[in-house]
Amino acid sequence: MTRSVQALAYARPSALESAGSGRLLGLETAGGLTPRGAEAHPRFFTGFLTSPQIAARGLLAVADVAAARYHQRIRPGSLDPVVTGNGDRLRFESFSGCGGVYARLDVLSAGLDGAETGHGTTNVDVNNPLREALSRLTGDDPLHLRVGPEELAVTTLDGPVVEKKVPLPDRWLRGFAEAQVASAGFDLRAELSGAEAVRFLRSLPRSQSRGPLWVVPSGRTLRPTTRPVAGAVCLAGPDRLIALERVLRHATALRVYGPVPDGRPAPSAWEIVLPGMRLTLTLSPDPARGFSGEGGVLEALATAEAAEDAELISVLLAWEPRIDPADLAAQSGLDVARVRAALTRLGTAGRVGYDVADAAYFHRELPYDADRAERHNPRLLSARALLAEGAVALDGGPGGGPASVRSGERLYRVRESADGRLSCTCAWWAEYAGRRGPCKHALAVRMARREARADGTAGPSAGTPAGISAETSTGTSVGGTR
């Protein structure tokens, strides 16, 4: 696993302090992007929280996920949450150290009372003393929130005095992107009242289950089941919802989102509705399976057209809380399908997220080199290597039909269905059948066809050299097939 070190530099530690008749929650920011460009310590908001205790607990829940590893609970992660100002709201996001849980607290305009919220994205310091202070916060005494340095300090800061250095694995970056792609395919599957949400969530098992749990709407609540019956939503690792307990007694509703069920384990999103806020946890299909390997972004990464479209769309973004693909299509001259592909690609660079409650993308710029998620994606790298080696033969020509790919000592057959989906005879495809994106062979074929159509040629030609066996069944060798 490729890792880098993320250096987060803060002017001072975040703190909860007494201030006159109330308290001041000062959240310090590290380097980030705003409409004015890169800033060392951007300032997004100063004003009051309408529900201070709930907001404090919601922020703690996001910090809980950032510090958690729900699978193989060793070496806890500790990447500070990301905050985005979208003009009408503040979004606090984090990702678990194991790569299987994405958390976001949306403090909406109804939860904020102050000046207009700024625009931009940065990391925010959530240190242990602050966590302890927030956990002790009770009552609803006025709580003033400041996101970014004090106004007078903006021009007087002469250098950081607090620095955190944390490992940033590539799988964490890819997981952030894949979680957005998965969420874009979700629909609302169930909604419970606050009281029913408390009863249901507190009835769930506290330990990891051996197999996936499913829940199905039953009257006013949800009924757990071990079988993927019609209308069921997958709840893989119910113990991973523990962060919701921070705010559970303040919940006004629980909304559950998921893809169209097909009987297989799938990701899901669990949203607690709060006064002026929403707290959402998105779970991977299995506690031992992070989002990084889902492969939902690979098709968008494999096309040069999407790269060019993404560059065009990126200049039209302005930290909108809701991105309308139809509006972007009208502004860019692209059709809506190409805009959506471009947004998927921008998601791999951390430049857009997806809000299941709004069923819309939103603009943010994650404060790290998220382009590494594309450059170091193992399947994408392997597909490009196969293409460079001339290992792809477009037997049916660049327009479609069968293709062959040499990989190691085997020859794999790639076929295209009537709806344009590619299948392969490799072990990866036999195990996942496209549920975790294309294998490297199908990806290489897709890239070869696009190159061939652009060049007006039939593409690379590859026969079956002596000593290479044609793999026409699912095969048994997993090594080198992904």
UniProtKB/TrEMBL annotation:
The keyword Chaperone belongs to this UniProt entry's keyword annotation: no
Alphabetic keyword roster: Metal-binding, Zinc, Zinc-finger
Bias kind Low complexity: ranges: 456-470
Pfam families reported for this sequence: SWIM
Renumbered residue ranges of the record's region Disordered: 452-482
MF terms (GO), sorted A to Z: zinc ion binding
Domain SWIM-type residues, every copy: 412-450
Protein name: Zinc finger SWIM domain-containing protein
Taxonomic source organism: Streptomyces laurentii
